[in-house]
UniProtKB/TrEMBL annotation, chain A:
This is Cell division topological specificity factor. Coiled coil: none annotated. It comes from Lacrimispora algidixylanolytica. Prevents the cell division inhibition by proteins MinC and MinD at internal division sites while permitting inhibition at polar sites. This ensures cell division at the proper site by restricting the formation of a division septum at the midpoint of the long axis of the cell. The keyword Transport does not apply. GO terms for biological process: cell division; regulation of division septum assembly.
TrEMBL record, chain B:
ATP binds at K11, G12, G13, V14, G15, K16, T17, T18. Residues 3-156 form the AAA domain. GO terms for molecular function: ATP binding; ATP hydrolysis activity. This is Septum site-determining protein MinD. One of its GO terms (biological process) is division septum assembly. Belongs to the ParA family. MinD subfamily. GO terms for cellular component: cytoplasmic side of plasma membrane; cytosol. ATPase required for the correct placement of the division site. Cell division inhibitors MinC and MinD act in concert to form an inhibitor capable of blocking formation of the polar Z ring septums. Rapidly oscillates between the poles of the cell to destabilize FtsZ filaments that have formed before they mature into polar Z rings. Keywords: ATP-binding, Cell cycle, Cell division, Nucleotide-binding, Septation. The lineage of its organism: Bacteria, Bacillati, Bacillota, Clostridia, Lachnospirales.
Length: 92, 263
């Protein structure tokens, strides 16, 4: 986030604030680590049917996003799924 | 008009009992007639913080079970003529009292006092349910730490679900030096995360340890925490006193990054 790459080391107060924001969203969405793992496994299974993905590098997490249509933040499920290759199986 | 206030937090060790002692004493200094009730059955502590541990004869459970009259169990604080303590029982557990009995207990005191301050135990089990049952409003104590704020958020949710009249927040143990260098969440950070009204910000103050050692609440004394607690008491009593933020993050880097965030 920092403008100056030299000062990239985050202050622990900011780390605490960011961890807490995510934690509270996860608490409220009632997503235990076990549930998150289940979602992740299901996603890997579904997406793998269509493309070759790097399942070790998948990131999924609950985030708070500012919503343009309403005031304040709402939780979003963020998934980052690196694609290795899209095989030509004739399905497109 | 009597107001019944529960001091709660979820997490232990954030300063509920210290806050109860100082708020109760401060309101008494302001001329209000106050009774402090320790609802932590089995882990009695408020008596020690108040320095009244040698004067206990009967306790809360004795009153509830009818072993004594209310008057016999109330300890009058000799330093402040309007201040009383109803101590908890040390050899019983939380199941000795029901929420219904707590409601009746505080109702019996309502006519005689201006403020009833309930010191809540840590946790969200029966002790918490007992403490909040008879309360009109709640003060949630937290510290600028991830674990304490998470628990405070949960407690606020439970208080809202229980239709608590008013819920206000005290952020305790703020260390100005750490906030300034960015290594502690600021008052604004905590307020931003927990969307409830704030009634006080208490700086970390080693005089709190000294005052607890001596069994003498420091509210109203010249120390930073004593001053902050007195301000809280005045706000509870209805005065309009602006919140003193013990620490504002400063420095060129923060100013710059804040500017960029806003842009």
């Amino acid at each position: 986030m920092s403008v100056f790459p030299v000062f990239r080391k985050k202050n622990s107060g900011e780390i605490a604030r960011n961890r807490l924001k995510l934690l509270l969203v996860a608490d409220k969405a009632d997503c235990s680590p076990e549930v998150m793992q289940m979602i992740k496994d299901d996603m890997i299974r579904v997406v793998s049917r269509y493309m070759d993905i790097d399942s070790d590098r998948i990131e999924i997490q609950m985030k708070k996003l500012k919503q343009p249509d309403c005031e304040g933040y709402s939780p979003v499920l963020y998934a980052n799924i690196p694609i290795r290759d899209v095989p030509d199986k004739g399905i497109y | 008009m009597c107001e019944i206030i529960v001091i709660t937090s979820g997490k232990g060790g954030v300063g509920k009992t210290t806050t109860s002692a100082n708020v109760g004493t401060g309101l008494a200094i302001l001329g209000k007639k106050v009774v402090l009730i320790d609802t932590d059955i089995g882990l009695r502590n408020l008596d020690v913080v108040m320095g009244l541990e040698n004067r206990i004869v009967y306790n809360l459970v004795d009153v509830v079970e009818g072993n004594c009259r209310m008057k016999q169990a109330l300890i009058k604080d000799k330093r402040y003529p309007n201040l009383f303590l109803l101590p908890s029982a040390q050899t019983r557990d939380k199941t000795a009292v029901t929420p219904g009995q707590m409601v009746k207990l505080v109702d019996d005191l309502r006519d005689e006092f201006d403020f009833i301050i309930l010191d809540c135990p840590a946790g969200i089990e029966q002790g918490f349910q007992n403490a909040i049952a008879g309360a009109d409003r709640a003060i949630v104590v937290t510290t600028p730490e991830v674990s304490a704020i998470r628990d405070a958020d949960r407690i606020i949710g439970l208080l809202e679900a229980a239709d608590m009249g008013g819920i206000e927040l005290i952020v305790n143990r703020i260390r100005a030096d750490m906030v300034k260098r960015g290594d502690m969440m600021s008052l604004d950070d905590v307020m931003d995360i927990l969307a409830v009204d704030i009634i006080g910000a208490v700086p970390d103050d080693e005089d709190i340890v000294i005052s607890t050692n001596q069994g003498e609440p420091l509210v109203g004394m010249g120390t930073p925490a004593g001053q902050a607690y007195m301000d809280i008491c005045r706000r509870i009593a209805g005065e309009n006193i602006p919140i003193q933020n013990p620490a504002v993050r400063e420095g060129l880097f923060f100013k710059l990054s804040n500017l960029l965030k806003r842009a």
